[in-house]
């Protein structure tokens, strides 16, 4: 079965957005502002270079009507030298322009990319859940490359060409008004045609850039899931899915090419026709003696000098459209509110003051009537958590047990505010977590998720990122001891060995132990562990548990557990069922008193709870 095409970002549209390309592109101004002097200087240099090119026909006119007509050899040599110097000056000036823009534009691109990355880091998890990763990746790569190209080339050259065309037309009108009007005649149909082209091209370029995002998603997922693809012999169906998407992109690119070819043809044919007409009218005037041959040569040379500025307008407009689409896609992410922007009241001093004196009964971690529904859950589906009440006293550890899909991971994700509770509240030592700055909250709470993610960095960096920045080698080794991660000392460079995606591959159990070390390295006040030992063999698990017990003695912990051995780590057990805490007690108490718990621990099915069958499901990313 081939992978279905990635779902589009929720606000993606293949329909024209009705946006003005100019207004969209103006949003880049804050980024361009710091380098504006260089950009304007470069544009000015390019205009001068272009106008130097327009002087050449005037020298030609002087040459034909003067030295050539008078058979003055010295004058002809002088004219030729002038033409050569003008040509060299034009080339040098264009070279200077290129040097002027290269460095500042690299800076603008880096700024845009840095801003996007920083913003993505601060977006709510719910937002990232809804977006295919390739759509985000393509915004940070292809789209930003299009923007740099736009700032380097079309932006300057649309201006340069416009000025060149205006100056050239004025020069032609001054040389001969009638011929000038003949040359100008195609301007009206050209403008009308360009506006129709702009709309169509905008739609096609949006579609193409979104499809690049889809392709990026498929490539990324195939690389990350290469073991599954190979293990199930799915490379052919994956390739087919990829081919389908790339074929679709090819179709869109061909549509763009057809549009471009049409506008190019119109842009070339109309002025060429006008040049032909001018030649005929001018030749008749020369024959009548009302126009000098030099003026006609100069006129036609000016018209030919304007050929490139006019012809290039088609693809410059196309590049502008692509840049406008890229800008639009870029700001779709940048305009999404960050976690902080979604709750600006979270840092109010009044709240902090009132929260500063918790009553002793509130100490520890407390869930009060917590309800939660995923924002993208199908309408009408029941909430995942439907009134969770649980109090974990300071220094106590509670194991959270429940059927698969009952909402355990969801509940743990609410504590560091990876998702926001829909109703009710969670308090840490009496302070509502929504009134705490996220940084403070996340410094208090450490988490180790079921799926241990390591970054492309050394073992030490991966573990120490769980601390507050002050943890040193001693803390690192203590954390590695707790997690029984002694294997790191056998790695080629010990704790300096690079692991993660671009480093040494570790086994699932090894990665899980490093993730556990990361969670405990900062001696957190509150510890959330989502089935932290699931990938360990029984001996390693027992060793980790023994070491972990010492850590748990000094921290308040919530541990998602599936196995009795993990459950026994905790002081008490809470059973999550149908969105609520159905029972709390010690492992042995619940084994005796709660049938659902007993069956969960024994591995036998229990008819009363089947959250996977009745649960709301995970419509967004999982569906892909
Ligand atoms: N991002 C999401 N959007 C929508 N629904 C989701 C999302 N993540 C999880 N769910 C749904 O929420 C429910 C609870 O999922 P959760 O991962 O919390 O269960 P769990 O108890 O941890 O399961 P397990 O024991 O298998 O890890 C499931 O029905 C799941 O499909």
Automatic annotation (TrEMBL):
GO terms for molecular function: ATP binding. It holds the Pfam family ABC_tran. SUPFAM superfamilies: ABC transporter transmembrane region (SSF90123), P-loop containing nucleoside triphosphate hydrolases (SSF52540). Residues 365-603 form the ABC transporter domain. Its main location: membrane. It is found in: Cell membrane. Residues 336-361, 605-624 are annotated as: Disordered. Keywords: ATP-binding, Membrane, Nucleotide-binding, Transmembrane, Transmembrane helix. It is a multi-pass membrane protein. InterPro entries: AAA+_ATPase, ABC1_TM_dom, ABC1_TM_sf, ABC_transporter-like_ATP-bd, ABC_transporter-like_CS, P-loop_NTPase, Type_1_exporter. Residues 349-361 have a biased composition (Low complexity). It comes from the Bacteria. The chain crosses the membrane at residues 39-64, 76-96, 150-171, 177-197, 259-284. Residues 40-322 form the ABC transmembrane type-1 domain. This is ABC transporter ATP-binding protein. It comes from Streptomyces thermoviolaceus subsp. thermoviolaceus.
């Amino acid at each position: 079965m081939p992978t279905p095409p990635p779902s589009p970002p929720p606000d993606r549209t293949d329909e024209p957005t009705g946006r003005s390309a100019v207004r969209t592109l103006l949003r880049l101004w804050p980024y361009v502002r710091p380098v504006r002097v260089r950009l304007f200087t470069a544009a000015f240099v390019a205009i001068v270079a272009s106008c130097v090119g327009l002087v050449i026909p005037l020298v030609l006119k002087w040459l034909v009507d003067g030295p050539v007509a008078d058979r003055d050899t010295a004058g002809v040599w002088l004219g030729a030298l002038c033409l050569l110097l003008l040509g060299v000056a034009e080339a040098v000036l264009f070279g200077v322009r290129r040097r002027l823009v290269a460095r500042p534009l690299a800076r603008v691109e880096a700024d845009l990319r840095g801003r996007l990355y920083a913003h993505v880091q601060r977006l709510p998890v719910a937002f990232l859940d809804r977006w295919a990763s390739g759509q985000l990746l393509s915004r940070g790569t292809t789209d930003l490359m299009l923007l740099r190209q736009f700032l380097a080339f079309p932006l300057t050259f649309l201006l340069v060409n416009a000025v060149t065309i205006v100056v050239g037309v004025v020069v032609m009108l001054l040389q001969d008004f009638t011929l000038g009007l003949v040359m100008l005649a195609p301007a009206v149909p050209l403008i009308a045609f360009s506006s129709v082209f702009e709309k169509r091209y905008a739609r096609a370029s949006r579609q193409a850039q979104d499809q690049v995002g889809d392709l990026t998603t498929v490539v990324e997922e195939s690389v990350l899931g290469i073991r599954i693809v190979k293990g199930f012999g799915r490379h052919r169906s994956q390739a087919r899915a990829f081919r389908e998407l790339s074929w679709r992109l090819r179709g869109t690119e061909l549509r763009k090419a057809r549009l471009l070819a049409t506008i190019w043809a119109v842009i070339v044919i109309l002025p060429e026709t006008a040049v032909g007409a001018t030649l005929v009218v001018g030749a008749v005037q020369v024959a009548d003696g009302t126009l000098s041959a030099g003026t006609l040569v100069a006129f036609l040379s000016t018209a030919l000098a304007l050929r490139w500025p006019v012809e290039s307008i088609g693809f410059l407009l196309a590049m502008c459209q692509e840049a406008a689409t890229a800008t639009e896609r870029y700001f779709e992410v940048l305009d999404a509110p960050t976690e902080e922007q979604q709750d600006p009241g979270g840092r109010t001093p009044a709240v902090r003051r009132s929260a500063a004196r918790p009553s002793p009964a509130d100490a520890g971690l407390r869930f009060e009537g917590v309800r939660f529904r995923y924002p993208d859950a199908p309408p009408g589906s029941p909430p995942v958590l439907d009134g969770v009440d649980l109090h974990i006293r300071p220094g106590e550890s509670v194991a959270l047990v429940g059927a698969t899909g009952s909402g355990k991971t969801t509940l743990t994700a609410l504590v560091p505010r990876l998702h926001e509770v829909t109703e009710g509240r969670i308090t840490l030592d009496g302070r509502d977590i929504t009134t705490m700055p996220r940084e403070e909250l996340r410094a208090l709470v450490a988490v180790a998720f079921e799926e241990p993610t390591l970054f492309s960095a050394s073992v030490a960096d991966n573990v120490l990122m769980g601390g507050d920045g002050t943890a040193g080698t001693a803390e690192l080794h203590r954390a590695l001891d707790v997690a029984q991660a002694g294997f790191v000392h056998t790695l080629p460079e010990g704790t300096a060995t690079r692991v993660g995606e671009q480093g040494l591959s570790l086994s699932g159990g090894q990665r899980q132990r490093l993730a556990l070390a990361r969670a405990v390295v900062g001696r957190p006040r509150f510890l959330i562990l989502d089935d932290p030992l699931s990938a360990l063999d029984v001996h390693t698990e027992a060793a980790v548990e023994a070491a972990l017990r010492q850590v748990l003695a000094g921290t308040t912990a919530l541990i998602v557990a599936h196995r009795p051995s993990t459950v026994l780590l905790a002081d008490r057990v809470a059973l999550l069922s149908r969105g609520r805490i159905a029972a709390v007690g010690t492992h042995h108490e619940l084994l005796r008193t709660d049938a659902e718990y007993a069956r969960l621990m024994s591995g036998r099915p229990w008819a009363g709870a089947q959250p996977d069958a009745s649960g709301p499901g995970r419509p967004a990313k999982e569906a892909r």
